[in-house]
Amino acid sequence: MSGGSYNYLYEVCDLEDLQARQHDLADMAERLAGLGYAQDAARETEELLLLFRQWQTRAGARTTRLQGLWKAVERWDSSDGGEDDVKAALAAYRGDHGTTPPP
Hints:
The chain is mainly α.
């Protein structure tokens, strides 16, 4: 019995798993392109990779912008901070004062 050349990529059941297997997707896209008669499938596989990369870039930028605010809310909810900290972090997130939220 053989198989597993692409770590059983065809068994992926959710996007989280597929995202974690981008190397396998790239290998599959290259293999499909190499067939010479599966260019459409190769292109669509490559588009999946591109979508994941775009999402990672965009999500990373938004995460960076939101982290200070998330931290302030989490600290407030765990009684390690207060509403004033959240308001300050929100102002920093919005760029109201050009400051960073308190630690």
